Amino acid sequence: MMNKHTATILLYSCLQFMVSLSYGQKPEWVINRGESSKYHSSVYLTGFGMCRVNNDTWLEDAEATSLDHAKKNLSEKIVVKVVSQTTYSEEEYNDEFSDDIQSKTFSSSNIEITGLQSETYYDELDGVHYTIAFVKRANLVKSYSERVDRLQREIDGLYAFALNYEQEGNTAMTLKKSLRSTVLFEEMEKYQEVLIGLGQSTPLRKDAITKLQVEELIERNKNSVANSLEDLATKLAFKLDENNGKNTPLKGVIVIPFSYEDSKTPTPFSKYFKQVLEEKLSSFVDWKISQYEDYKNSGNRDLLKYYLKGSYWVNEDVVTFTVFVKAFGAGPTLVRLEQKVDKAVITSATLEYEIPKEESIVTPDSMATEQ
After folding, report:
1. Measured between alpha carbons, how far is residue 12 from residues 46, 110, 143, 149 in Å?
2. H or E element: which one contains 96?
3. List of residues 6+ apart from 59 with CB closer than 8 A
4. For residue 330, how many other CB atoms are within 10 A of its CB?
5. Angstrom distances, CA of residue 162 to CA of 170, 205, 216, 248, 331
6. Sign of the torsion formed by the C-alpha atoms of 68, 69, 74 and 80
7. Hey, which of 73-82, 314-323, 325-334 has the most confident mean pLDDT?
8. 202 pLDDT tier (thresholds 50, 70, 90)
9. What single DSSP character describes residue 32?
10. 0.70 surpassed by pTM
C-alpha cells in the first residue's frame, strides 16, 4: 500500500538529443502511436508525444511541446513499472530497501534519462507535430548499475572509517561519516528505482553495508557518553532536532551563549561553546543559524525566528546542561532538554567556566548590623 509521501526519482545526467525532422510519409511509430519495429520494446524504452499547431502555437513551440510530452510519457512508463513490481522486489533486493520502495509513491515530473534521443515528424495536412523519445534499455541498465555499485562501494568505505572513529571514541567524526552514508543511500535508491522500472534486478553483494547497519551506528553514537566538547555539541544538535516540533529543520535560529547557573551571565567557555554548537546544528541537522549582526545590518525579520539558550550547572564532577528553543514573541517552547556530562568535558576547553563570586565588602554599617 503506497503512502502519500512523494519520492521524486532524480538522476543527475547530461541530456543528449538526436532529433530528426521529417515531412514525408508517416513513420510507423506515428501511425501506431509510439509502437514501431524500428524502436522495438525489447531493445528500446520509448515515449510518444504530439502537439497541434494553431493560431496560438508556433511550429517551433509545438515541436518543443511534443518532445516534452514524449519525455514525460517515457518517464511514466518507468514509474508504472516501479509501482507494479515493488510487490515482489524482496527477492532481488534486501528486505530493508524493499520496504523503502513499497512505502513510496513515485513521480515522473523530474525523471531525466541518460542518453535520451528523439525523432520528430510534422504532419502538414493535420498541422500536428509528433515526437518519439527513445533510449536503449541496455545502456540505461549498464549506466545505472555501475552507479549503484560505485555508490555502494563508497558507502562501504565510509562505514569502515566510521567504525574506526567509533573505536577511537570520536563520536563527532563517527556521525559525520555515517550521515554522509545516509545521503548516498538516498541517491543510490533513486537509481535502483529506475532499474526496477526497467525490469532489471541489481542484487547487492552479500557483504554490502546496509542502511540498517548505518542507522544502528548513528543511534549507538547519538546515545553514547560525550567525551569532548565536539561530542557534546553533536549530541545536543541531534537531540534538539529530534525533539523539534516542526517537520523540517529550523531556519532563522539565533544561539545565545549559555549562562552559568543562576548568574544569567555568559562565560568565556559558553561563548566558545556557542560557536561549536552552531557548527554542529548547521552541519549535522541542517538548521539555518543566524547572527544578530546580520539581522541588524539587513533588517530581515526571517533571520530571527527562534532563539536557543540555556544554562549549565556544575555539581562536583557532573555538569548538567539545560537547553530550550523558543519562537520569538509569544510563541511556544519547541524544545526543552537536559544533558549531563563529566566535568572533564568542559574543563578540556581550558576556558573559565565559572563567574567569579563577588568578595564581601566590609563597611561600618555592615559591621554594625552583624553586631
Report:
1. 20, 10, 12, 16
2. helix 95-102
3. 53, 122, 129
4. 6
5. 9, 20, 12, 26, 39
6. positive
7. 314-323
8. low
9. T
10. no
